[in-house]
Amino acid sequence: MIEIGKEYSLSITDVALPSAFGVARAGEMVVFVPGLVPGDKARIRIARLDKRFGYGEAVELEERSAFREKPVCAHFGECGGCDLQQLAYEKQLEIKQNHLLQALKRIGGIHLEEVDISDIVPSVDRFFYRNKVEFSFGEDAGGQTILGLNEPVSPLHPYTGAIMPVRECCLFSPAAAKMLPHVREFVERSGLKAHNPTSGKGSLKRLVMREAKQSGEILINIVSESGIAGQLAGLAQTLKEAMPQLASVYTTTGNRTTLLWGRPYLEETVCDLVLRIYPLSFFQPNPRTAEELYKTIIPEAGISRNEHVAGLYCGSGAIELCLARRVKEVRGIDSSKDSIACAKENAAANGLENCSFFRDRAERAGVHCPPDRRDVVIIDPPRSGITKEALRAIVEMRPRKLIYISCNPSTFARDLRSLAQEYEPKHIIPFDFFPHTGHFEVLSLLERP
Does this model's pTM top 0.70? Predict the structure, then answer.
């Protein structure tokens, strides 16, 4: 009988995703343990018990896994940015592949032997791959304003929202290490305070950095509770002098952005297109690996130059724009006003005249795609997957093929089950967009039976 507070010597056999907790068994009870990896054996104190599983805390590492590696980042474990830096990258890929297979089998009801499932495609870069990071402002115990990353979520203690002052982020860019000291010094000098949602005092909420991976250009956006553009002018000047690659400095309050200095957008090169990225634009966070996925779509789906493509949940239209020169016409649908505006601007800037973008919900995609304009439908929904209404709309559109891109294997598998009467998965290719985390992307081709 497993009891809370008691310690047990347990072996870790797997990692649960997306939490990235180590998995052990104590009798019939599954125990999740943060920080441990397959092959570890540890003394574990049981902290919580539910009906079918429990959570434990590693008290002592008794046997070190052969898959353990020294984390590259000095802050690993202190912030919530990543979970698996201590695990060999090849093992991370193996665990993600297995997680996908289990989701397809258990949730999707897929007969794995009947579907061509490729090995996961590694990230082009294992570190410094992200094009965006969000730092948060907070207060230390002495009431001083601090800037860093949020504490990791853990089942072992309540989440407090504490901010960990970091010097770098190995998932984002070396540019963060150059920027952070200047912002901290300016904040201390200016007397600006972090926003406290309980008291309503203070203004500073977040600092968002974006980097164009091809050029190294940087966009900085300071998010505040109230308009403080005038007070931030000095910071813009300081950052401009300290960072030659800086292209833009913004401040944002609510949905209103104000350009303090520089060009209004970053320019990122993807699939030989130069795409503009604004402070509120959605763009895949690992653009170099995303480009590999985009290049796979045409040969995978067998799309010809005479066919029409519709993109649902198109965001800023990166996928649709990358396909435009290889097909007759593309149409994109997304509910975000900013994303659709960005997609239209990028189409014009790249001289793509066969692109149309519509601000609407995916559930109404058929309104914008006449029956003769829906040979192939590309679906790239949020983590929650496709709504039931959108699934019905897709089936009613009756495209020849579907390309489903997902960032959540569980909802992806659920949606495949819902589509099973109308479309069968033919090929599934996972891509590791997010090394050292419990997340990855999946590309799939579906056809009518």
Answer: yes
